[in-house]
Amino acid sequence: MSTNLTIVNRASVLAILATICAPPLIASAQTVAPTSAPTTLALMPVPSSLALRTGSLTIDSTFRVAVVRHTDARMQRAIARMIPRLEVRTGIPLSHVVSKDSAGATLIIDCNSAGEAVQGYDEDESYSIESGASSITLHAATTVGVIRGLETVLQLVDADSARYFIPAVSVNDTPRFRWRGLLVDVSRHFEPVSAIERTLDGMSAVKLNVLHWHLSDDQGIRVESKRYPKLQKLASDSMYYTRSQIREVVTYARDRGIRVVPEFDMPGHSNAWFAAYPQYASAAGPYSVGDGYIGFKGTFDPTRESVYRFIDGFIGEMSKLFPDAYWHIGGDEVDATEWNANPRIQKYMRAHKLADNAALQAYFNQRMSRILTKHHKHMIGWDEILHPGLPTTTVIQSWRGTQYLAQAAQKGFSGILSAPYYLDAMRSSEYLYGADPLLGDSALTAAETARVLGGEATMWAELVQHGTIDSRIWPRLAAVAERFWSPRNVTDVGDMYRRLGVESVRLEQLGLGQETHTSRFLRRMVNGPDIGPLAELLQFVESANLGQRMGRERVRQATPLVRMADAARPDPPGRWRIMQLVQAVGSSSTMNVAAHDTLQRWFAEWRDLAPRVHAIANRSPLAQSAIPAADALARVSAIGLEALEARRSGIPLAKSWTDSAMVTLKAADQPQGVLHLVVVPAVRQLLVQ
Ligand code: ACM
């Protein structure tokens, strides 16, 4: 068995998914009412129905909010957050007084009820907006619908040279999927509350509704327990959330219409528990909190009653802090080394007719399920837990492939999809956007399809710290959020990228840092403002993915993540832009001169970049890792320049030259150290078109 099983498995699963989940053909967003009026509307996610009308509402200092019918403190707080955001966007001081009088009000909020006391996945999140020249009315069945609608109102704000305005529109919006989440792993690297809260702000802006908080793994248990205080003393490296911080995050999330589903991964990925309580492990130990990411075998002993008493006590305590109806038991990648080596466990399995380790894990899960029922929780777990004998209220989270989601649905379980949405795999927004939770599962009946609740992107944190987390999550998560919310036929990738650029800037206004990330990191790296060559390089270069990077660098938890690969952003803007230019450029008789000239300038820049990157790396050891990528980009640029000239002149390229160029491009598409060029497919297309 591989020492770094988790990483290898994730990487290989994602490689398979690359083929299964290739983006579907682009279709136009038919739900958006066609309009001949040019519009700069940049709603993300696209609403389920939108009609643009003539006219607009000018935002000026008379802007005033009124709430008619139901209101509550959560709604008042949502409005109190919205008004300052509108002020920052427009530069106009606005009234913060919210009245009950709709006469003369600009934004009228008309809501039926507070919604569920504990938000569940059936919460009504729908809303509608009617805006005209003098007012906007936001209707919603629940406060969560109001929260969703207020984000749309903010996204509708547009400007011309004279004023800020909201175009006259009619929006009727409801999510396609009920479970739209993000997993944040805080075990491999701890994230401070501030990072979690700004992530929640971003999630709410794009209408996501579940924070899946991965609170335990081999590298640490991240909660304070009164009942089992050794957890925070011995199993957390002093980095854990206090009980009041947990309550704060849960409240913060609820205020934004987001559920918090805690995950405590069992029976595998459990080394850290045993640093505090070794008596519940399947081997004698000794155990310590994981440092690094390889070789942890600690696994709960499913044959001991004391283990279930411990877990019962833990869940009993924690379930009071986490009101959500669901509790994630993990259940993935159980390393059975300790089970196989323990004669007492082997004897127990024979005595209880548990044929193999899968049966032993199924037994453990059944016991977990009973404990959760006692504490009024439903179970959710990774797809390894799918086996008979669990209540069908159990939700299966498919990470090893879409087929597990289909299997779960066929067996009567609800499920959510994560496999294509692993953010650490460094897939482009285009790829993430193209992966539909229902793609390829057309064999499902209507009832089975209804069991697909949605999906979650995952932010595993082996190579993520609080300084890099925004750049890893955003803006790609906004593309995933649209996939989960918008109608299935909203698949125009070009329009997605247009809106993603706008949304990313809006997200920065909420305090996220992905757009300024690279320059911030590079300035520190070169100890000064002269970041030009490195910044140019990172327009076209991203970090190698988790598996590739782990295979090339020795990274431990204590390793500061401040290197070139950390400064780089996944799916940098150059990838999509160059692909568009290549698709537009045409050939000698049809040449698009502007596209040709831009490409030519870029290729020349890439060629000239290499010596400049070398010069900077001579003054910065951390920048040394840019050299292989800069050199590879120069090789790609030489090919690009020749291919472009062939296009222009109409003189075909010699086959021998093309063959050799293809070999060079293939090599350039491999990781260059810990970096990866994102432009190779576009240059390859220039050769074959
Ligand atoms: C997982 O990625 N092991 C759920």
Q: How would you describe this structure to a colleague?
A:
With 689 residues, the chain is of the alpha/beta class. The chain folds into three domains: 125 residues, Chitobiase, domain 2 (2-Layer Sandwich), CATH 3.30.379.10; 320 residues, Alpha-Beta Barrel (TIM Barrel), CATH 3.20.20.80; 172 residues, no CATH class. 43% of the residues lie in helices and 14% in strands. Strands 1, 2, 3, 4, 5, 6, 7 and 8 form an eight-stranded mixed sheet that branches. An eight-stranded parallel sheet has the order 13-10-9-18-17-16-15-14. Strands 11-12 form a two-stranded antiparallel ribbon. Strand 7 and strand 8 form a beta hairpin. Helix 1 packs across helix 20, helix 24 packs parallel to helix 26 and helix 25 packs antiparallel against helix 26. The N terminus is likely disordered. The chain binds acetamide. Acetamide (ACM) binds next to helix 1.
